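seq:
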Amino acid sequence: MQSILLISHGGMAAGVKDSLTMFFGKQLPQFETLSLTSDMGADQFGDQLKEKVNELMNDDGVIIFADLLGGTPFNQAALLVNDKVDLIAGMNLPMIMELLATREFSQNDIDHLAAVGQQGIVNAKILLANDSEDVDDD
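struct:
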């Protein structure tokens, strides 16, 4: 089972993990978070990130979800990407829920997880307008 590491600026990673426990319970195996705080430099964050990845590493590897493409957490994680470490930027709840729901049964396709995350982003006005048009057509 692939390990999961959420990384972010501030408390976002911990907040996402907290939300996930509402769906999957408090015990999320092989699942950790790491936050870049305002008093932490890039090198310090990078050192802590390496430690977390080493702790989580197993035969199936580690997938890291970063909050923001090009930010310090992403940039430090990009240095660790290899055949056992995957990295996705722009984490959101749907993509991580998909991974948690399927990771025990199969090795996940990173492109599929990114697509699930993108599908979870919608303009509600357009979605609601389309729904009301469908009702009006009846």
